[in-house]
Amino acid sequence: MSETGGTAPGTTTSGDGTAGATGTGEALATAGRDAGGSSPPRRRRGTRSSRTAPWLFLAPALALFGAFLLVPILYAVWLSLRSQQRAGGGIVAQVDVVFVGVENYARAVTDPALYDSLGRMLLYGLMVVPTMLGLALVFALLLDLPRVRLRSATRIAIFLPYAVPGVIASLLWGFLYLPRVSPVRETFLAVGLPAPDFFTSTSVFFSVANIAVWGGVGFNMIILYTSLRSVPAELYDSARVDGCTEWQVATRIKLPLLAPALVMTGVFSMIATLQVFNEPQTLSPLTNVISSDWMPLQKIYTDAFVRNDIYTAAATSVLLALVTLVLSLLTLTFLQRRAFGDDA
């Protein structure tokens, strides 16, 4: 018998009389596993949940995107590839919906009325987009000056027309244009000047464009003004200390920093031009100059709900959507390269 007594259970004694810890380590490891201290399974569950969480947050937006954007687009494409055909004669003839391929697209691209409406839309866009963005930029720069009184009130007054729905704005301006009730015409006649006619074949473009500019300047101004306010004031102060005038600060500092916002507002304005509908459609009952197919969307509306040709209207809608997508991508690419150079 040794002088230190017996060894503890689960330990081993080496040849030189020291006790090994092999058994004790195994016992502690077993106890740890029994107590649930194993971390790898818990780490895998955490990784799985972290991958699932973003999709759960995106699920409502993806559902709305699919229900209100993707499904209507696919349905429009499905309609554009079909047409109605009558089987038999007489009043009780059966109407069947058959697949016609690209026949509706061929009919749409050979319609002269579509190209006439596209030409009017191009002229309208050349009038609206530069004027609207130019006024928005001027207002944003003026409101960003260091000593401007009534800044908040002026900003709200400029933005307020954007809050007016397009149909309501068109009705308001329509009464100002209408010869019998127009206070503008009465004012011109009262001072001995010839009264303007807002509904001639030429002036009607300015009348419709004026409504779009009146309603769109405030929205674009807010975007540009917000971009200016995000620039550190120390940058402007340093330029003024170096002797720069407000004109030099605006042209050499503010305008380059506004490039991303100008790109975004330019693309938005172009898309809005391609989708113009409310203004001419609301003004059309007031004048014979604005026909039922004056703009592309008016032609689509007339084909679908007046002529009851929803299949050709669907084909024209798909073509207009493709034109909008292509022009948006080309415009965005061009403006980004001009604004950011090779870094775009």
Task: Write up what this structure looks like.
With 344 residues, this protein is mostly helical. It has helices at residues 22-34, 40-80, 103-109, 112-143, 151-159, 166-177, 183-190, 203-229, 233-241, 246-257, 259-274, 278-283, 296-305, 310-340; strands at 12-13, 19-20, 82-87, 94-99. Among the domains are: 55-99, no CATH class; 121-296, MetI-like (MetI-like fold, Orthogonal Bundle), CATH 1.10.3720. Helices cover 68% and strands 5% of the residues. The strands form two sheets. It has a two-stranded antiparallel sheet with strand order 1-2. β3 and β4 (94-99) form a beta hairpin. It is globular, with a radius of gyration of 35 Å.
List the keywords:
MetI-like fold; two-stranded antiparallel sheet; 4 strands; mainly alpha; two-stranded antiparallel ribbon; globular; disordered N terminus; 344 residues
Secondary-structure map:
Layout: E1 12-13, E2 19-20, H1 22-34, H2 40-80, E3 82-87, E4 94-99, H3 103-109, H4 112-143, H5 151-159, H6 166-177, H7 183-190, H8 203-229, H9 233-241, H10 246-257, H11 259-274, H12 278-283, H13 296-305, H14 310-340
Antiparallel strand pairs: 1-2, 3-4
Helix pairs in contact: 2-14, 3-14, 4-8, 4-11, 5-8, 6-8, 8-11, 11-14, 13-14
